Amino acid sequence: MNDKSLAFIFPGQGSQSVGMLQELALEHPIVPGTFQEASDVLGYDLWRMVADGPSEQLNQTEYTQPAMLVADVAAWRVWCESSPLRPAWMAGHSLGEYAALVCSGALSFTDGVGLVRERAQLMQHAVPSGVGAMAAILGMEDAEVVEICGQISTSDAVVTAANFNSPGQVVVAGHKSAVETCIEKARSAGAKRAVLLPVSVPSHCPLMAKAAEQFLQRLQKITIMAATAQCSVVHNVDVSVQTEADAIRDRLAGQLHGSVRWSETVAVLASRGVTRFVECGPGKVLTGLGKRIAADVPTEPLYSPDSLRKVLEMING
Predict the structure, then answer these.
(1) Given the DSSP bridges, would you call strands 299-302 and 159-166 parallel, antiparallel or unpaired?
(2) Catalytic one among 204, 232, 257, 263?
(3) Residue 25: which CATH number?
(4) Where in this chain does the record put each Malonyl-CoA:ACP transacylase (MAT) domain (predicted)?
């Protein structure tokens, strides 16, 4: 049964932590079982890495992206064991979009794991270490940040808005020198905070264009079953719902170098009748963002036995 007022949203890179989903795994064997399925694809013990660390390894893009996809899907499988209710809508923040596609039935889990591993590797190798950077700009209008980026950015020193996360929170990405200049100008223009983020890959900016071309070739070999998906997935790059496989491939490739329009995604879902969001996966990042985007629409995270009970209470009224 699909509930048109319910949307499941999936977190991406940045929500990972050593020990994530451990409590949920104690009550739901499907959690470590899901990680074992992924380990068979990846060729290493992903569950042990998530359970024991070290955090330095888990936080490397090459390992973070598969770990977060699998964690999101594991949380979804727990939900499917716990309730017959299914959302009519799904979306995921950046990497989380792959979890949405897997959980909607548009993409197989095995293909999803392989895709995000390759995505991570292409992103990691697209820009030499130390050349790219990302920064969070807080307390400014989206248009102000876009204007500052436009003033600074050149062909040799690119900086663009990468993530529109919520009103007053924009992430920029590009060449490190341009990102640092953007930070200075944002502070001078009145930003509450403007800080470099601890990432090695400048995601969602033109520096990823070549990686996107290579990734699209990989996507052509993947079966996408959009026509039989169980719910609608809203895509980051243009806030659209697509049902054709090639259209979805184009948006997944475009996401690598295009902005994540998360504020619009949540707002559009709320405008289409969504009255409850569930953040399905580790952490509470999207729950926090949701309070600033659509404060009147409750969001509950699902990552532990206690949080699962709260989600069930919200759903069951």
Answers:
(1) unpaired
(2) 204
(3) 3.40.366.10
(4) 9-311
In which element (H, E) is residue 174 found? Answer: strand 169-175
Quote the pTM value. 0.96
Catalytic choice (15, 39, 93, 94): 94
Range of the structural domain that residue 240 is part of:
2-126+208-316
Active site residue 94: yes
Instruction: Please give the Cα distance from 35 to 31 (Å, whole number).
Output: 7
Q: pLDDT tens, 28-87?
A: 999 999 999 999 999 999 999 999 999 999 999 999 999 999 999 999 999 999 999 999
Contact 98/92 with Cβ under 8 angstroms? yes
- Residue 306 has φ and ψ, to the nearest 5°, of -65, -45
Q: Please report how many Cα atoms fall inside a 13 Å half-sphere around the Cα of residue 276, on the Cβ side.
A: 21
Residue 129 token pair: 């270490």
Examine the domain organization and report whether 23 and 68 are in the same domain: yes
Tokens of 210: 């070549």
